[in-house]
Structure to design on (141 residues):
């Protein structure tokens, strides 16, 4: 086996194994510096945050243990984005799943079908709801 020189002929100090420097990569992650911290927020602060137009912020509000009932009702309103209503339906607070059982979105109604506080009447109705059944078949396929 023939040894190859570490430095190519004619190039001083430019061998194959010479260390090279590389600049730092320009990487940024998400840019959500102003995303609200809802864990320690007071009910009044949560009410202020509920004025946001950002569906991600509104959905995040539902994770607060101090969310007031009026804000939760506002987030469950059919005028909100489906993602916000879906988050509101999954909170586990009394009345949220039963309210969500009448939502226009089959996705939200499907979540309500398995809520602990959904009335037996609404649970039966959702079992025969074609939109809910179609959605459940879609996600289980």
């Amino acid at each position: 086996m023939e040894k190859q020189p570490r430095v190519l002929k004619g190039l001083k100090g430019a061998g194959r194994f010479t260390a090279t420097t590389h600049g730092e990569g320009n990487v940024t992650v998400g840019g959500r510096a102003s995303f609200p911290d809802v864990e320690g927020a007071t009910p009044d602060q949560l009410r202020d945050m509920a004025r946001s137009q950002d569906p991600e912020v509104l959905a995040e509000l539902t994770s607060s243990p101090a969310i007031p009932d009026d804000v939760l009702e506002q987030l469950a309103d059919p005028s909100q984005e489906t993602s916000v209503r879906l988050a509101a339906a999954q909170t586990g607070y009394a009345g949220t799943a039963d309210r969500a059982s009448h939502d226009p979105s089959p996705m939200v109604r499907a979540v309500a079908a398995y809520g602990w506080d959904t009335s037996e009447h609404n649970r039966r109705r959702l079992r025969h709801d074609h939109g809910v059944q179609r959605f459940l078949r879609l996600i289980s396929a």
In short: Residues 6 and 15 are 5 Å apart (CA to CA). The mean pLDDT is 83.
